[in-house]
Amino acid sequence: MRRRVLCLSILCCMVPIAVTACLWDYDTLKMERAQFPGIAELISGKFLRHSSEFYEWRISDRRKKILENPEDVRLYDDLSVAYDKTGQHEQAIQTILRVQAIQPDRYETYANLGTFHIHSGDLETGKKFIDRAIEINADAHFGREIYQQLLVEYVLERRGDGPLPQPMSTQSARFGPRGFAEFLALRKNFEIGNPQNKDKIAAAVKGISGMMRFGNHDSPVLLEALADLLMAQNDELFRNLAARAWLKASYSVEDQAVRARYRKAADQVLSLQTDGSNRRNRVSLESVEQQFRKELADADAWFERLRKDEQDWIAAGEDVDLRFSDRYYTDPVLPSEVKSQAQSRRKMTDRSPIWSVQFWPLYAVLIVIGFVIFRNRSAVLRRIRSGVSPDERTDID
Predict the structure, then answer these.
(1) Mean pLDDT score, 227-243
(2) Is residue 91 part of a domain?
(3) Quick check: 230 and 245 in contact, CB under 8 A?
(4) Burial of 364 per CB tally in 10 Å (0-12, 13-18, 19+)
(5) Pick from 182, 178, 186, 115: nearest CA to 152
(6) Is residue 328 part of a domain?
(7) How many CB atoms lie within 10 A of CB 245?
(8) Quick check: 222 and 211 in contact, CB under 8 A?
């Protein structure tokens, strides 16, 4: 009996080992999208944004309007951002500085100045302006500037006196926390992995995604920071999105050695994923990349249609701002009905149905336990029938 109890105890200890890998099936990305709507589209580039032709049109349009309304600070905001979007960072800085004489110590001015300097490569000066913007209004843009401030501090720390390493973190992407997520936890003094702190990571995801949406969604720095935060969710479902962020970062650099390191990080993210057919069929980077390239092609085709609309409106001499608002009044994020299905699927997964393959090792243990109990019970009954009291036996086995 003692030997059997020992064997059963060993089997029970082995059960958790058998269920650590995360299943990967067609619903996985939908579930992730339900948790963070729009993140997958943000990574692929399928979100509302303007073409370079639009910003050239806006530069011309706002310059004319400023001549008519030289005191309208919103026109300077639009013009300076258009300059920044077209790579004219110094012109953007000089344009927004003109607002200081009209409306001094304005939050929007400092926020834009900080971003323009950061985009130009002057992180130290950019951080000073971001710091001032936060002093004026820390809650503007849903607190996005706070995470911009922290990300700049992280980049400066990682860069040191030399070039910025790519990736910025040398830790393995297989397990979290790492990189920017770990830096954030240290600065904000909270523990990653504690369920009570998940909202803090989610807020950071929102802040970084805001920078991607309104800044440069192809930035390897932002994509890496996003991947770090997604992995810090301590939920295998987010590995799908994190792997895509790493792959997108690899497409955004020319250096082959850097590209290889980004791809290695994407592969590490997938190390505990299986394809759902069984526990040993690991999801390959190639299979994820194949699907991701289809998503990128779909996003490119969608944006090309948007760009064509803007080009046509410009050629026709129309008010492109007005036409854009009329046509693109909603963002092409996950449709509500698909989101609802994904949430329902996630709830089913959380309930872990009894027929799930992940419980098979447990079933085996229960069967063995039931067999031992049945056998011992049969032995007791046989002794009773033969006139021997169970209390008189020393070992019925």
Answers:
(1) 83
(2) yes
(3) yes
(4) middle
(5) 115
(6) no
(7) 29
(8) yes
